[in-house]
Amino acid sequence: MRLKRHESLMSNLPTVPVWHQGNSARTTYRVAPQNIERVICHRLKNDIEQYLIRWRSEDKSRPLLSWHSLDVLAECLAHVQVYLSKVTSRLHVHDGVSTSETTSRSVSRKRKSPGAEPGSLWWGQPLNKEKHGLDVVISAISSSASERSSTPSSGIESSDVFNCSFEKRAGYLVAKPVKDLTKLSLPTRQMKDEAKNTPMTQAEHAIRQRFLEMLKESPGICLENNVDSTTPSLNFQFIDGYVFNEGVQPLGDEFVVGCEKPCKPHMGGNCGCEYTAKCACLEFAAVDEDTLARKGGQEHEEYQRLKEENGGMQPMTTPGLNPPKRFPYKKGVAGVPNTLQPFYLEQRFPIYECNLKCNCGPICKSRLVQKGRQVWLTIFKTPDRGWGVRTNENLIRGEFIDVYLGEVLTNGEAQRREERARKSGKDKASYLYALDKFIGDDPGLDENTCHVVDGEYMGNVTRFMNHSCEPNCRQYTVSLNKNDIWVYNVAFFAYRDIAMGEELTFDYLDQDEQEEDEVLRMRQEEALDPNNNEKKSCNCGASKCRGYLWT
């Protein structure tokens, strides 16, 4: 959850825990992140990096500022990271070099559901793991980084504070305004010049270490950067399920309906549900039209009539009929994982899994996504597309990878967040997923009322997956409650065999595959359109690249 921001430093004392360094009797007083507005400068003092922070204060004309080392700012590294990113971006622009992640992302759109120097920086190591027992092992950082241990605390001197003084009260640092206000405009030119020549290696190391600690909460993921010395944002929180925002509430358990007898755990050679015609979880599943057509007869004729009445689309219900359907997954054997049936993989029908009220038991083959990710992945830095994700093991076509997680918002709140991003001048990358798969199934569900998943600040590893116009993964709708058309899982499956070390990608617009000649023609037309001059170029590198994101 995000930390609550206090409007006034003076009316809300910083809740800073006392921290003892080793066995030393010396105590370091930390700063609470909610009491900081931002970091505005940095310097090197006695070989220790220090950062000038601007405290939150009601009087904006007389800000309270002070210098602190990284151990005092240990809980505020996200603020330090934002400052570091801005400084790096300015230096890149000044040097005539294209900026990295801070400016590489582009316009916001809702997705449709379905070391000190650049070098080899590697965290994490391969695991000897069982498929259903992932663990995470974090190895040592690079030798140069591991030598930089936590920096000792430095005392606060009078030259380190501006417009305020500090009291150490019951283990807390408390900033208080002083009468003789400093008239300097901070940071001064001298401070800025010093900052230009001062590396931030200690901060980079501390930020990396903090992100590695975050990864421990999400087993089976490691981090690699062979491009530069950056780290994914510390403002991101790894979660293991949806976080429902105000105005969003999933249907309660009383609305969940599971399959009953004859479904039972040990049917079909211990595979669980066996009869598609009798499994209640498949009530709204897609009809196997090819099989129905081969059977022919009155049932096929009646189904065709219902389909015509539904505008040529498969009818949601088939009263009086019991057309053939298919279970979503193929049971794996001899260490091969369960995979998504081609019937669903190719045609993108909603997938209905068995649930907590089902009679089939936990080993049922129709339980896959609900068991979570079972593959080892790496978050890695790309040269031109920010962070990406690749697999550390071979994946087979139809294999489940992971779901997309985040805050579930009302459509109105999602639009407000996009608007705030535009007003602030940010090139906010789109982490918004519209849960719009079932639009049309209910009069109250449309593009303006469907919920939206925002994975920018809360989510999981899939948040770092990049776009490709010719992806190796696809996203699918997976429901654990057939009666809930508002909230469901967005799950990623391998669309083809994927080799170990290959980047995992998906199409942000979730478009159907096109012929290469047609894509080339469209790309040439897009390049000649002056309205596309401000659009973000697509760097996916695929032969079927459309040229721009969001086109």
Automatic annotation (TrEMBL):
One annotated GO biological process: methylation
Keywords, ordered alphabetically: Chromosome, Metal-binding, Methyltransferase, S-adenosyl-L-methionine, Transferase, Zinc
Comp. bias regions, Low complexity: 97-106
GO-annotated cellular components: chromosome; nucleus
GO molecular function, one term: histone methyltransferase activity
Cellular localisation: Chromosome
A Pfam cross-reference name: Pre-SET
Record InterPro entries: H3K9_Histone-Lys_N-MTase, Post-SET_dom, Pre-SET_dom, SET_dom, SET_dom_sf
Region annotated Disordered, chain positions: 94-126
Post-SET domain span: 534-550
Main location: nucleus
Domain SET: 375-509
Protein name per the record: SET domain-containing protein
Source species of the chain: Polychaeton citri CBS 116435
